């Protein structure tokens, strides 16, 4: 190597971590992403660590962010949260060889007791308490999840219900129960995956992170 080329090699900038491309296969084809691309297309506010965590979980779970199978969401100054849509849970569940379906609904206050109603229909004047979901598997007893509305309903900074929860509380709390029951029934399929309704900014610190694969 000439002295000129040696000199150029010495001053050549090292590749940035943000530009390193990570490649993985999914059911819908190959995905190629980097930290820089995650910031450009999915979450401009994400830190390098948050974007790398997002890439690691997507690779580990074979998710395709381009097809909206996973999202990286940043709440102000809080750490970014990794969430998936309910459809991701549904599509993966039906492919599981031991999966036999589910029943899900809402929990209403009736007099001094409670009613567990299938579906998410709530008549005017009925008091909504929570949601439930039962997942049926071939190799074990049904997995039942019941969740409280008060624990998950989304609120604004002022403490009021946000627009989604104000208009679709029954649908939203049923979805939380659905996701939790399926994650418990099939942990290998859904490890580290959460629905946005399960996450509030102050909870982001507590989310477990699966190792990359």
Walkthrough of the structure:
Helix content is 33%, strand content 24%. The protein has 213 residues and is of the alpha+beta class. The strands form three sheets. The protein has a four-stranded antiparallel beta sheet. A two-stranded antiparallel sheet has the order 1-2. α2 (35-41) packs across α3 (48-60). Mean pLDDT is 85; it is low at 203-213.
Low-pLDDT windows of residues: 203-213
Give the DSSP E fraction (strand runs of 2 or more residues).
15-25%
Number of helices: 7
Q: Structural class per helix/strand content?
A: alpha+beta
Cα distance spanning the termini? 39 Å
- Overall pLDDT: 85
Shape: flat
Largest sheet: 4 strands, antiparallel
Radius of gyration: 22 Å
* Adjacency order of strands in the biggest sheet: 6-5-7-8
SSE succession = HEEHHEEHEEEEHHH
Share of helix among residues?
A: 25-40%
Number of strands: 8
Compile the SSE list and pairings.
Layout (H helix, E strand, L loop, with lengths): L2 H9 L10 E5 L2 E5 L1 H7 L6 H13 L10 E3 L7 E3 L2 H10 L3 E12 L2 E6 L8 E11 L5 E6 H4 L10 H23 L1 H4 L23
Antiparallel strand pairs: 1-2, 3-4, 5-6, 5-7, 7-8
Task: Give the tags.
single chain; 213 residues; alpha+beta; 7 helices; 8 strands; disordered C terminus
């Amino acid at each position: 190597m000439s002295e000129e080329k040696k000199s150029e090699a010495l001053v050549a900038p090292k590749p940035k971590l943000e530009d390193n491309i990570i490649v993985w296969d999914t059911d819908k084809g190959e995905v190629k992403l980097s930290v820089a691309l995650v910031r450009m297309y999915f979450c401009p506010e994400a830190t390098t660590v948050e974007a790398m965590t997002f890439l690691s979980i997507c690779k580990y779970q074979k998710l395709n962010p381009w097809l909206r199978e996973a999202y990286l969401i940043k709440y102000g100054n809080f750490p970014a949260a990794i969430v998936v849509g309910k459809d991701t849970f549904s599509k993966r569940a039906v492919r599981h060889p031991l999966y036999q379906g589910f029943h899900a609904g809402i929990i209403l206050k009736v007099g001094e007791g409670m009613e567990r109603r299938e579906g998410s229909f709530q008549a005017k004047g009925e008091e909504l308490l929570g949601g439930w979901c039962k997942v049926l598997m071939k190799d074990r007893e049904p997995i039942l999840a019941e969740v409280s509305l008060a624990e998950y309903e989304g609120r604004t900074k002022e403490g009021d219900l946000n627009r989604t929860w104000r208009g679709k509380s029954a649908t939203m709390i049923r979805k939380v129960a659905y996701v939790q029951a399926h994650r418990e029934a099939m942990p290998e399929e859904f490890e580290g995956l959460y629905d946005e309704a399960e996450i509030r900014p102050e909870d982001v610190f507590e989310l477990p992170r699966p190792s990359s694969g």
